[in-house]
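Work Package 3 (structural annotation) set out to generate three-dimensional models for the target panel prioritized at the project kickoff. During this period the team completed the workflow that converts sequence records into discrete structure tokens, so that structures can be stored uniformly alongside our sequence database. As a representative example, we reproduce one entry of 278 residues exactly as it appears in the project archive.
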Amino acid sequence: MNERVVVPTRHPAVGGTFYPSLPGRLRADLRSYMSRAQPPRSAYAVLAPHPALLYGGHVGGAVFGALAVPDTVVILSPNHTGRATAIEGGSILLGRAYRTPLGDVQPDLTLGHELVERAAPLLVEDLVAHAHEHGIEVLLPFLQMRNPAVSIVPIIVGWKDWARSRTLATAIAEAAGDRDVLVVASSDLTHYETAAEAEVKDSLALDQIVALDGEGLFREVALHRISMCGVAATAVACEYARLRGATSGELVSYSHSGIVNGDTHRVVAYAGALLGAR
């Protein structure tokens, strides 16, 4: 059972820029993004992008609109700010609730503390890393729309290797036990290449993701120099789904920034995938 304790809040870092700060406007936008999604299904894990909603909201909507969100979500993000107590480790935040315009998202303390123990010494409590990181924050309103009672274990992944990613995935699976725990990997794909180049490179990464091959994802990203920011987070999600019994994932959306701003010479690409849908 989740230990529900009211904790202080971590205030939004990108509210009003990446997404609307007015609750009514935010809800309306999210409903629009999710309106064309497939009927909701459960999944062990998902991949979702973290740009401003203007650019990636329709991809996030395709993912979360097609997803039945359980009460507990482990959400993994890369470190965009470079700020962290443990630069090479994982920064977990259990001492703060994440605030969004839709309300506060409380941490799942029971799962979070068990995960810290099982994954030791990978994870440290770290408000510094979370204070200005957007990779978790921008996905929370989607989760709240799907399940207003959702609680989270937010982790910023500081490493870039398969061994520690596999260790964390194993720890999450063991800590989850028989509970329905969703893992969300927050990541964009290729950054600042042409749309055509991005599509070729991203297809190589996505082949590994839908195969739930986290180690293969690291290999392809290194071999082809794919500028995917959340490689480790995505590898953890793939391995977690595999450990839970899944055999494949499903790409539900792919897009890039040029579709919005017209610049196809220097895009950021986004993908959404269900990993182990059931």
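The mean pLDDT is 94.
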